[in-house]
Design goal:
It contains 5 helices and 5 strands. The chain is of the alpha+beta class. Strands 1, 2, 3, 4 and 5 form a 5-stranded antiparallel sheet that branches. The protein is globular. The relative contact order is 0.20.
Amino acid sequence: MASVAQTDELHLSSLSRVELTEGKDAIVAMQTELNELASRCGQSFAQADLRYFLSRPTVQKKRPVMLSFRNAANSQLEASVFFFEYRLAGCRAGVFATDDTTGRRNLMAAADRRTSIAFKAVRELMR
């Protein structure tokens, strides 16, 4: 019997292309593609106020970062995860966090892939 970690790796093998997008403007520029992903994943509410979510006063001192997971065969966006990177004196701290306590807005993926995508995102950020 395969372990959960092995099963997750097999499940994610088709999502071999990971892209890092940084900054509010770059992320907002992907709004149409993110809306399509949210709709496919049954999370249409997740991106309703993307520009506001990335512009709130509580996140102004943090840099928005998004990891996009794409299907290796057709480049279709299959999942995305949003974080904010802390900065100290304007320099990158390498510390990432989210302000979404429910996780409904920060991670978009098919329901059966959300946990494994979250783990993969953390591994990508730790590189």
